[in-house]
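Lab notebook, bench 4. The sequencing result for the construct came back, and we need a structural model before the next group meeting so we can plan mutations. Quick request posted to the team channel:

Model the 3D structure of this chain.
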Amino acid sequence: FGPRFPKRFLSLGGAVGMGVCLMALAWTTQQFWASMAVIATLGLCGAFVGIPMQTLIQEKTPEAMRGKVFGLQNNLVNIALSLPLALASVVEARLGLANVFVGMGALVSLGGVVTWYIADTALRKT
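Done. Here's the predicted structure in token form:
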């Protein structure tokens, strides 16, 4: 059923869904099963972001270069995860867990909307 939906709308919906889920975690920190449901939904929304992006990379990358491209991508993702993990603990200690979740949710949602806007504007010009 995936090809029926434009990739950019799946990514937008996924990013906004992830943002909403992160904000929802701020209010479920003391409720185990509610947190698990929100985290499962967060993962589902993450798939709506990641799968279309990976598909696009596979479609646009020449077959002979895919190993190099995906190897580099994997390294960049691992490097990019280090700093936020270190910063999250410092920010959480100062602001509290709920505030960190709300802030992350707002940033993820905003990032999704900005990315969608940039992609949509570029597609309209072509």
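The chain has four helices and no strands.
Will bring this to the meeting.
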